[in-house]
Amino acid sequence: MTEIKSAKTEDLEKIAACHVAAFPASLSSALGQKYVMKMLGWYLSSENTFLFYIESEGQCLGYCGVMIKKTWGVGSASSMAQFSFDQALRSFIVRPWLVLHAELRAKYVFIGRNLWTRLKRLVNRNQKNTSTNSTIFEPYVALVVIGVKPDEHGKGYGSLLLQEFEKRTVELGYTKMLLSVLTDNSKAIKSYKRNGWVITLVNGKSTSMEKRLHSL
Questions:
Q1: Fewer CB within 10 Å, N side or C side of the chain?
Q2: Those residues with Cβ within 8 angstroms of residue 33's Cβ, 6 or more apart along the chain or in another chain
């Protein structure tokens, strides 16, 4: 029997195992189980993030991580990187060869920005952020990650997770959903389209997609 559950701290180990199985070649998986658990813990650290998963016989078959964006500000990637920074550093110390990982090399600029942000936070810890943006912002719910164990593919679990994502989005009072996916991941894009998502922008290696829902 399968069941969709909201993740708790005690669930992170089995969700991390699912992540490693779903994304074996990713940098996060290479950094180890402890790092993946810390990274996933970010979804439990705020009222604007949440994590849910499909469980069967005590195992996680698939999971979904979500972020609610209400205003302009730091995105999920930077926020997650800041949250898991210490564990990432420890993992790199144990596995120094991973500094040459292809995924990391592609993110050197991103990492530099996050190191600079972390430094500024230490220096300006007591200063308030007074930055503003006059552009009108439309709140939305972002699908940050979705993963299904490889041996569970073809059983409809991906669509089940997307349906649960939509259900929770509407229950929270939002109607706009966004996600980004690798442009060359045609299988995932096809699945999203089948579930009602549309492409809004193709920017090199990244493709942005959107889906609008009806409010309750």
A1: N
A2: 13, 16, 17, 20
Distances (CA, A) of 185 to 127, 152, 174, 193: 42, 18, 27, 13
Give the pairing of strands 49-56 and 198-203. unpaired
Q: Is 36 helix (H, G, I), strand (E, B) or coil?
A: helix
pTM of the model: 0.85
Spatial distance between the Cα atoms of 209 and 87, rounded to a whole number of angstroms:
31
CA–CA distance, 57 with 3 (Å, rounded to integer): 10
Report the C-alpha gap between 104 and 81 in whole angstroms. 12
- Could you report the per-residue pLDDT of 41-88, keeping only the tens digit for each? 999 999 999 999 999 999 999 999 999 999 887 778 888 988 998 999
For the chain, the average pLDDT equals 89
163: which 2 tokens? Answer: 């349906």
